Amino acid sequence: MNVNTQRVRKALVDLARRAIDTEPLTNDDFREICESVLVSKMYYDMDVGKNRYINPVTKQLIVSENIVDGKIMLYDNGEKTDLVMKYTYYYNDIEYVHAYIEFRPGIKKSDLDLLMYQFMADQIFIIVSRQNLRVMLDFEEAYDDRTCIPNSRHLKNKYARVTKHYPKEDICVIFLNLQNFKYLNEIIGMQGGDEALVKYAVTLHSFIEDEDECACRVGGDNFALFVKKENMERTLKFLEAVKLDDLPHLKGREYALSAWIGISPSADCEAPIELRLEHASIACSLGKQRFKKKIMVYNSELANNFKHGREIVAMFHPAAKNHEFHPFFQPKVNMLTGELIGFEALCRWIHDGKFIYPDQFIPVLDRQGLIHDLDMTILNETCIAIKKWLDMGLEPPRVSVNISRKNLFIPNIEEEIIGIILRNGIDTKHLEVEITESAKEEEFDRLIDFLAKLKNQGLRISIDDFGTGYSSLSLINNINADIVKIDKSFVSSMLNDRKAAVLIETIIQIAKRLDMDIIAEGVEIADEGKALIKLGCVNAQGYYYSKPVDFETTTKLIREHGFKPIQ
Ligand code: C2E
Ligand code: CA
Ligand code: CA
User: Fold this and answer.
1) For the chain, domain boundaries
2) Which of 69, 71, 221, 558 has its CA 20 to 30 A from that of 485?
3) 234-243 contacts, C-beta under 8 A, 24 or more apart
């Protein structure tokens, strides 16, 4: 049998030209050359199992559409063969891949121009490698390398393509942040967490069936997608709890992962895709951090809210430097005797002569990790005030300061607190720390340790907002606090709501049994005071006596020695 070298040369040139064309090579492209050189089958034996370019969604090696028995098949006309030639290619000095050429039946090695076949195999290898490289680069650019689903660049490009023929008014953009993913990582380990992430990504990706929709991984445990308005309901239902099965680290048990969801609705369609993604992610993080709502839809009010948070963060350090944060003091009173028994220091931000109240900035600072600076500032200012009263010859009652729970994880926080007090030349007996209860176990252990260290140094501790957390009863039993502070939400409803009254009564009884003092906050009217006294709580703080007041007014209150008793 004869080989027409002219035809071979032409087929090789055609193939090379096709390879630099924009379309990927297909098996058809190898037909002409294989037929012209009496070849029945041509393939590579690259170890596809270990190749990382396996797309977990399609389960295909992305460099070739055609994988048979682990071989990358270039051509196969189905005929049997009597002669197989093997060509070896090296990478970093190791055998990297072998090319196989199977000849049509009846052909013997002696029939062949070996040099020409070697040349042809090498040329094809170069052409295919170049092609593979291009596919791999495209893949790197458009796909996420951990999960192999599209990345956000891909999503943006696809949005641009789709909105050329589909009205963008009918497309919603969704941003997702997995709920409790950290927790999952903790219980099944990093590797298990990775597995879950990949599984989630693949499940999400396969959920999208419409050609004109797209899902991607943004990074970390964040994902984004865009879907048609008509598919929103179905999509949200799916996202509510994505079921992951077959996770080896969960021993095959099914696990449902839900997500915080932020939506850039169709009304937001005039914004370019980059902005729509940002809007959806703002909605998502506000839902998670601020509103505790699983699904948040972006609108201009949310935008202002977010902007406000950012402005607070930007203003904070200059304001602290500028001494704009001051403690105001609210008296604590024994309702039976009218005696002034203490103050609570509450932060006020005085900016350009205007008051900014804590609910406007404390939650933002708490979330952004800036609360420690604020708490230490207020503690320091409170110590300065106490020192001034002492220097005036007054005997100020004990003043409590609020310490956010976030401080528990600041290294050496106890030393820092004690250091601030002592550096101001006052004794720890003048101060008390208010800290809210905690539901998280890891925080709980740390809280016990924190309280013990501060108590050792002579500070009193009160548990703030008692009754609003989840672990109240177990907490109060295990914790060595001095005072329980009944939250004002119970006090304000106790006269109309029997449940609140029963709860207050229970708290009081437990506190007494455990030898703890008790105080109610938010007492606004005498009837609330009377009811509290009846239930056994005689100490109170609230507008009934006074709002938080500045240093001068507080000085007057200390001089006056108390209030009228509640009859
Ligand atoms: P909180 O610790 O529960 O403080 C009591 C809040 O109730 C104060 O609000 C106080 O002004 C208000 N209040 C007192 N009596 C009454 C009353 O009779 N009726 C009503 N409706 N409210 C009353 P404020 O000063 O706005 O502080 C709000 C929250 O901000 C505080 O709640 C506390 O959690 C936080 N906060 C204030 N200053 C600081 C601080 O320096 N550090 C930290 N970490 N948090 C602070
Ligand atoms: Ca407080
Ligand atoms: Ca409170």
Assistant:
1) 5-142, 152-298, 326-560
2) 558
3) 235/174, 235/207, 236/261, 236/295, 238/207, 239/174, 239/176, 240/294, 242/200, 242/203, 242/204, 243/203
C-alpha of residue 261 to centroid of ligand 3, in Å? 31
> Residues 281-332: pLDDT tens digits?
999 999 998 888 999 999 988 888 888 888 999 999 999 999 999 999 999 9
Does ligand 1 come within 6 angstroms of the Cβ of 380? no
Mapping DSSP onto H, E and C, the string for 240-308 reads HCEEECCCHHHCCCCEEECEEEEEECHHHCCCCHHHHHHHHHHHHHHHHHHHCCCEEECCHHHHHHHHH
CATH architecture of 5-142: 2-Layer Sandwich (3.30)
Residue 410 to residue 423: CA distance in whole angstroms:
20
Which amino acid, residue 393? G
pLDDT in tens, 65-101: 566 777 788 899 999 999 999 999 887 788 778 899 9
Nearest CA to ligand 1 atom 21: 522
> pLDDT tens, 409-433?
899 999 999 999 999 999 999 999 9
How many angstroms separate the alpha carbon of residue 284 from the centre of ligand 3?
28
User: Which H or E run includes 121?
Assistant: helix 114-142
380 alpha carbon, closest ligand: 1
Decide whether any atom of ligand 1 lies within 6 Å of the 462 Cβ: no
The answer to whether the CB of 382 is under 6 A from ligand 1 is no
Ligand 1 close to Cβ of residue 371 (< 6 A): yes
CA–CA distances in Å: residue 368 to residues 39, 178, 314, 346, 444: 67, 20, 11, 20, 22
β-strands 431-436, 460-466: how paired? parallel
Q: 363 CB under 6 A from ligand 1?
A: no
CATH of 326-560, one of 3.20.20.450, 3.40.50.300, 3.40.1190.20, 3.90.550.10: 3.20.20.450
Residue 487 beta carbon below 6 angstroms from any ligand 1 atom: no
- The CATH class for the domain spanning 152-298 reads alpha beta
Ligand lying nearest the CA atom of residue 462: 2
